[in-house]
Amino acid sequence: MSNLDRRPPARDLGGLDGTTSGPVLDLLPGKEVLLGESTRVRRLLPTLGRRMVGAWVFVDHYGPDDIAAGPGMQVAPHPHTGLQTVSWLLDGEIHHRDSLGSDVRFRPGELALMTAGHGIAHSEQSPATHPRFLHGAQLWVALPEADREVAPHFEHHGALPGFTSDGLTATVLMGSFGGATSPGRAYTPLVGVDLALTAGADVEIPLEPGFEYGLLASSGSASVDDVPLEPGAMLYLGTGRRTLRVRAGSASRLLLLGGEPFEERLVMWWNFIGRTGEEIAGYTEQWSAESQRFGTVVGYDGDRLEAPPLPPVALRPRGRVR
User: Fold this and answer.
1) What pLDDT, in 10s, does the model give residues 191-212?
2) Was 122 annotated as part of a binding site?
3) Residue 177's Cα: distance from chain center in Å?
4) Domains observed in the chain
5) What is the mean pLDDT of residues 149-168?
6) Would the annotation count 153 as a binding residue?
7) CA angle 276-28-193, nearest 5°?
């Protein structure tokens, strides 16, 4: 998925400054933005006061939207470097094409995981004939220095591991949780888990104390350590937790994201992650010149996205928080 902001701010990411030394409950303010031609999303990461949760650097939550009379998601071909995209649907269907030749439709409960590495381009569309509702999350994971130039690849996993207990059904998107391990390849210690709770469920969720965590409310009514969490909101939970108590007032879906604090300093601008402003400028020039770094998305009917103008100030990596 793309950041379609025509004036994207430069994001300085990473480093251990700003990482908590213990648990917190910080509500992250989201920002509504337009994605593609018709899809509005709530951008929850990066946001004011928090740039990363582990290696997770970007969180968009969209829907549920009634798209019966419209085109749904329509995102033209665009580039990525130095990251993974993790696509997770609760309702709907998305058609993914990329410059590797991948041509896949994925649905709720399936993992679409694209590793950009050295460089890739892709498009995302609701099919012409699509389900009535569209609801999901789009996530980015930063690749560490040792792997950021890895050859790009795409994974589609139609079945994911998990477990059901005491009104909780957990599905593991990335990493390991509760004895279940995702088939998706991760390059740093991290976890992503969809938590479906029945109405009235009251559960203790196991956590790794060395991880920092965030919790996104996708739907329903839930409270976290007695703090209400409304749909479309995200809580930053900090580090040092071994468990987390979650209560569901109604049937609810939550997305738990966590990982070891990411020590490296990064620059994120538009759809690129690099280490210096000069790298970002180079990626932008190569995309505009139609360099083979990114390849061509075959089968998409339309123009690809143009890169927005670079900001007038130098892009420099700094810390994890503003």
Assistant:
1) 999 999 999 999 999 999 999 9
2) yes
3) 18
4) 11-15+22-259 (2.60.120.10)
5) 97
6) no
7) 85
Q: Using CA atoms, how far apart are residues 295 and 144, in angstroms rounded to an integer?
A: 23
Whether the upstream peptide bond of residue 127 has omega within 30° of 0, thus cis, is no
Instruction: For 288, list phi and psi in degrees, rounded to 5.
Output: -65, -30
30-71 residue pLDDT tens: 888 876 556 788 999 998 889 999 999 999 999 999 999 999
For residue 172, what are the β-bridge partners?
A: 193
Task: Please check if 124 is assigned to a binding site.
Answer: yes
Which tokens hold the place of 123? 């498009």
CA neighbours within 13 Å on the CB side: how many for 197?
Answer: 28
**Residue type for position 202:** D
Dihedral sign, Cα of residue 148, residue 151, residue 156, residue 160: negative
Instruction: Pick the closest to residue 259 from 314, 194, 213, 307 (CA basis).
Output: 213
CA dihedral 90, 91, 92, 93 (to 10 degrees): 20
- Residue with token string 């059904």: 169
Following DSSP, what letter does each residue of 73-121 receive, concatenated? Answer: -EEEEEEEBSEEEEEEEEES-EEEEETT--EEEE-TT-EEEEE-TT-EE
Residue 295 neighbours by CB distance under 10 Å: 19
Task: Please report the pLDDT score of residue 29 as a whole number.
Answer: 79
Q: Is 95 annotated as a binding residue?
A: no
